[in-house]
Design brief:
The chain is an alpha+beta fold. The protein has one domain: STM4215-like (2-Layer Sandwich), CATH 3.30.2000. Helix content is 34%, strand content 31%. The protein has seven helices and seven strands, in the order βααβαββααβαββα. Strands 1, 2, 3, 4, 5, 6 and 7 form a seven-stranded mixed β-sheet that branches. Strand 6 and strand 7 form a beta hairpin. The C terminus is likely disordered.
């Protein structure tokens, strides 16, 4: 007998928003709108753009001779916490761990699973596959608890040109409106709130930098799952996992 724990959530915010913005911003052909001052895409980074700019400056060792990453769009996860508006039917339910699920995980290189919505070691994947094979047709059951979590994300836009910052800001604003519909339609992510702020300035790089930001708040859907490889009926799964289950390895499918 072995018990495995893992978790799932609807989207991994940094990966989702970064990819969605980068995959859609070229539609606006910003090189034309800025008369060639920038390409169709700014740099997208998983941090505050000015933090990355400081890094480039320090790495070069010469304030007058470093390669700027600007214009850039950065994203950071600011906060997350329990949401009082939990899903209806909150509690435990029994679900099957299918061969199709394990096959999907096995087809993705471990280093790429985060981008594809899965954080799972090969050790856990192999253990689930071995359990399915050993059962020879019997179902592998799990007990799932689903809950909601409120998360906040900050998106920052910086450049050394007011027109560039304003155009990128408006393009990102339009893209985030599209993301709101995508999240509601294709993921169990709800109540995306978008708040923007412009007229931000920085003078620490020897020139005036112009910034703008978005603060996003939304409800993400999570699952905590226990798998008992020895259980053969729904009733035994419910009793054993809820009453005597012990902690084990954890992985997190992200979407």
């Amino acid at each position: 007998m072995a018990i495995y724990h893992f978790s799932q959530f609807a989207v991994e915010p940094i990966t989702y928003f970064l990819n969605y913005m980068e995959n859609n911003i070229a539609d606006y052909e910003l090189h034309e709108l800025t008369n060639g001052h920038m390409g169709d895409k700014p740099n997208f980074v998983e941090a505050h753009p000015l933090a990355m700019e400081y890094g480039a400056l320090l790495s070069a060792g010469d304030p007058d001779n470093y390669t700027s990453i600007l214009p850039a769009v950065g994203i950071e996860l600011l906060d997350d916490g329990e949401n009082e508006k939990q899903l209806l039917g909150q509690g435990y339910k029994v679900e099957e761990i299918t061969q199709a699920f394990v096959t999907t995980v096995a087809a993705i290189a471990m280093k790429d699973r985060l981008k594809d919505g899965i954080l799972m070691s090969d050790t856990i994947k192999d253990a689930l596959q071995a359990a399915i094979t050993a059962k020879a047709g019997e179902k592998l059951w799990s007990v799932t608890q689903q809950y909601l979590q409120t998360e906040s994300v900050n998106i920052s836009i910086w450049s050394n040109n007011t027109t560039v910052t304003r155009l990128v800001y408006n393009a990102i604003k339009a893209i985030l409106k599209r993301a709101k519909l995508d999240l509601a339609t294709n993921y169990t992510v709800r109540n995306l709130s978008i708040k923007g702020q412009t007229a931000l300035y920085n003078y620490e790089f020897g020139e005036t930098l112009f910034g703008a930001e978005f603060s996003l708040t939304f409800m993400n859907s999570f699952k905590n799952i226990k798998v008992d490889t020895a259980s053969t009926t729904i009733k035994s799964v419910e009793h054993h996992l809820m009453e005597t289950g012990k902690a084990g390895p954890t992985f997190v499918p992200l979407s």
